[in-house]
Amino acid sequence: MATSIELTQAARDPMIPVPYVVERFLRETNDTFSLELEPFDPTYELAFRPGQFNMLYVFGVGEVPISISGDATDTKRLVHTTREVGVVTRAMRNLKAGHTIGARGPFGTSWPMEEAKGHDVVLVAGGIGLAPLRPALYWILRNRDEYGKVVLLYGTRSPEDILYSKELAKWRSQFDLEVHITVDRATTEWRGNVGVVTKLVGRAPFDPTDTVAMVCGPEIMMRFAVEELTKRGVAEANIYVSMERNMKCGVGLCGHCQLRGEFVCKDGPVYRYDLIEPLFVEREL
Amino acid sequence: MTRTLRIGDQVVLDRERLAGLFEAIRKLGYVVHGPILSDGAIVLGPIESDRDLPIGWRDRQDAGTYRLERREDDAVFGYAVGPHSWKRLLFPPKRSLWRAEREGARFHLLPIVEDTPKLALFGVRPCEMAAIRVQDRVLANGQYQDSNYASRRRQAFVVVADCHEPGGGCFCASLGTGPTEQGEGWDLAMTEILQGRHRFLVRAGSSKGLDVLRALPWTETSPADLQAAERQRQRALRRMGRRMNPEGAKELLYQAASDNHWDEIAQRCLMCGNCTMACPTCFCVTVVDRTSLDGSQTERERVWDSCFSLEFSYIHGGSVRFSPYARYRHWMTHKLASWQDQFGTMGCVGCGRCIVWCPVGIDITEELETFRSRVGGNREAVR
């Protein structure tokens, strides 16, 4: 068992993971899953802001940065949703309830929940990019009165790849939230939109002059989303994007996540678009 | 020895008394490291006394070239910098971060409690002192710190030695980091004087250094000592192999991001990463997990890494900096430009190692000037 001494030391050194027990493994789609984690030490206080990430460690395999996909008000349970794409995430898929996993964090900047107050909010998600946006959505729904119109635009490869489908169905039936989903490839049963998510921006119901947009997905998708948003009249300073880079430390010391002068792990991953625009357009930076 | 020495006072120590300096430092519990001869190069290693130093040797350096030669004199510091830098000691190439043991479905994390060594760095050149100050900013003075580095650095006793034999790759003078500009952060500074009586001008930069110096049989400096030191400095400045104009380097390189000259450099660059290993300020690391064959134990190590590898920027789907030009661009832009945004200083100190230890002799000073001469050149347009 993890002793409190271990935890205290872990808290001091950001490179040492904190042990968590896997409470629940949730298969989301064919290649995505969520892990619900609880710290071994019941007194360990979880605290994160929507958009932040943890470095998750699988024993003997390695560590990867994964954004937090749960509710920020839940101080007992940590939720991460990820896609199986590499050695570590594939090992993570084999974790079961009762297994131990390590986590370091939370790291990085967060979605502009304060700045968005009093304005319309558009969330644009591509694929697994919905996971880091879900905490923002939970936040908004808990403080619904503080925000204007709220729109979620979500694009994924096929209807089978839709993440959090039950929650999305529930949200779609709510009157205080607009949810639009589109898929790249439809199946015969699909009655919804087909095409890239950025195409939904043009007809989504929000006031472009009074909107904060939060965009998360593949870089090319974010680029087009920004283009569509600015075309509608959303100021670049009101658009936020979440960047992804290789990370080994999470605290700006390993150098891997650099995007010119930015350490994406600590200066990001969430950026106000106008502040990193030149870095966003240059190739292979 | 009629007066009480103070920090900054310059005094004379005879060559024969150098052994006493080592004794005095070792007596305080320091493990002394300094330049030694090994495998045809002057590298850094543990030294017991002045006899271990590369006395009477010089190095001939230029782009992609390094040779040792005998000197006609018995100079103690008659060479420039070798392939090693002090980051090997303050920021070791490999370090264990923690261990973990499996117990059924669970595992325990066992932090590694390490007593950091009390190091004395002997013969640190002014450019290397500048590099240590750069690493202080990066590793010890930021939002997060590398506690191991901070601890090693805090405990270290640093003896700076002015440089009188700059190599062909050197350009410290143009960056204000040498050959005799020691800046701050050291305990003792020495200037070797070969003309006439073989001796050193020594001054303390800290109370630790002062304690050591006070215990030595020093004598007062004469005007002749200072004149000899100045002549040596002038001679060193004349022998500096290269120069870099740092003026506007940041804006210049940011503007040059799309210049197709990067492709031209990439034609020559082997992506070997030698420059990053030899560089005294490069700090990038990766982590390596070593797991026992039965899967019961694992250990995580932090090891030096290089931005020239494809793995460095790999995220699912591919490497961010896939093209060779993008990797060289990242390294050079980081060193001379974005480092300034990150840490308020350039990442280059003019030691010339990246030029000398580059197998194909790519010269960062020359490439910077090429970009300067091409301002406005556009990568896409030329393609």
Describe the structure in your own words.
The complex is a heterodimer of chains A (285) and B (383). Helices cover 23% and strands 30% of the residues of chain A. The longest helix of chain A has 14 residues, at 219-232. Chain A is of the alpha/beta class. In chain A, strands 10-9-8-7-11-12-15 form a seven-stranded mixed β-sheet, with helices on both faces. Chain A has helices at 4-12, 87-93, 130-142, 165-173, 198-201, 219-232, 273-281, and strands at residues 18-29, 32-39, 53-58, 62-67, 78-83, 100-107, 120-126, 150-156, 178-183, 193-194, 211-216, 239-242, 258-259, 262-263, 270-272. In chain A, α6 (219-232) links the parallel β11 (211-216) and β12 (239-242). Chain A has two domains: 4-107, Translation factors (Elongation Factor Tu (Ef-tu), domain 3), CATH 2.40.30; 120-242, Nucleotide-binding domain of ferredoxin-NADP reductase (FNR) module (Rossmann fold, 3-Layer(aba) Sandwich), CATH 3.40.50. Chain B has 383 residues and is α+β, with helices and mostly antiparallel strands. Chain B contains 14 helices and 16 strands. In chain B, 46% of the residues are buried. Mean pLDDT of chain B is 95; it is low at 378-383. At the A-B interface, α1 of A face β6, β7, β13, β15 and α11 of B.
Helix-strand layout with pairing:
The complex is a heterodimer of chains A (285) and B (383).
Chain A: H1 4-12, E1 18-29, E2 32-39, E3 53-58, E4 62-67, E5 78-83, H2 87-93, E6 100-107, E7 120-126, H3 130-142, E8 150-156, H4 165-173, E9 178-183, E10 193-194, H5 198-201, E11 211-216, H6 219-232, E12 239-242, E13 258-259, E14 262-263, E15 270-272, H7 273-281
Parallel strand pairs in A: 7-8, 7-11, 8-9, 9-10, 11-12
Antiparallel strand pairs in A: 1-2, 1-6, 2-5, 3-4, 3-6, 12-15, 13-14
Chain B: E1 10-14, H1 18-27, E2 31-38, E3 41-46, E4 57-62, E5 65-70, H2 87-90, E6 94-103, E7 106-111, E8 119-124, H3 126-140, H4 147-155, E9 157-161, H5 172-175, E10 188-193, E11 199-204, H6 207-214, E12 219-220, H7 223-239, H8 249-255, H9 261-268, H10 274-278, E13 285-291, E14 297-304, E15 314-315, E16 318-319, H11 324-343, H12 353-356, H13 364-373, H14 379-382
Parallel strand pairs in B: 2-8, 8-9, 9-10
Antiparallel strand pairs in B: 1-11, 1-12, 2-3, 4-5, 6-7, 6-14, 10-11, 13-14, 15-16
Helix pairs in contact in B: 8-11, 9-11
